C-alpha cells in the first residue's frame, strides 16, 4: 500500500524534528502542539531503530 502525500509529509516532519532537536524535545513539541500523528511517527522510528539494534 502506498503512502499518501500527507503521510509522507508527517513522516518527514517527524524525522526532521528528531534530527534537529533530539528525540525527547521533539516529543515535547509534538505533545504541546497536539501533533499526535507526528508523535506516532517519532515513536515508530524509535521502535524500528530499537528493533534493528537488537538484531546486531
**What is the typical, i.e. mean, pLDDT?**
88
- Biggest sheet, in brief? none
Structural class assignment: mainly alpha
Determine the oligomeric state from the structure. Answer: single chain
Terminal-residue CA separation: 29 Å
Q: Care to count the β-strands?
A: 0
Which parts are unreliable, with pLDDT below 50 for 5 consecutive residues or more? none
Please trace the helix and strand order, writing H or E for each element: HHH
Shape: globular
Instruction: State the helical fraction.
Output: over 70%
Strand residues, percent? under 5%
General description of the model:
By secondary structure, this protein is mainly alpha-helical. It has helices at 5-21, 23-33, 36-54. The chain is globular. The model has no long low-confidence stretch (mean pLDDT 88).
Secondary structure: elements and pairs:
Layout: H1 5-21, H2 23-33, H3 36-54
Helix pairs in contact: 1-2, 1-3, 2-3
Amino acid at each position: 500500500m502506498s503512502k499518501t502525500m500527507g503521510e509522507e509529509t508527517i513522516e518527514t516532519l517527524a524525522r526532521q524534528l528528531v534530527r534537529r532537536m533530539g528525540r525527547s524535545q521533539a516529543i515535547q513539541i509534538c505533545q504541546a502542539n497536539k501533533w499526535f500523528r507526528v508523535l506516532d511517527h517519532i515513536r515508530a522510528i524509535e521502535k524500528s531503530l530499537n528493533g534493528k539494534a537488537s538484531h546486531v
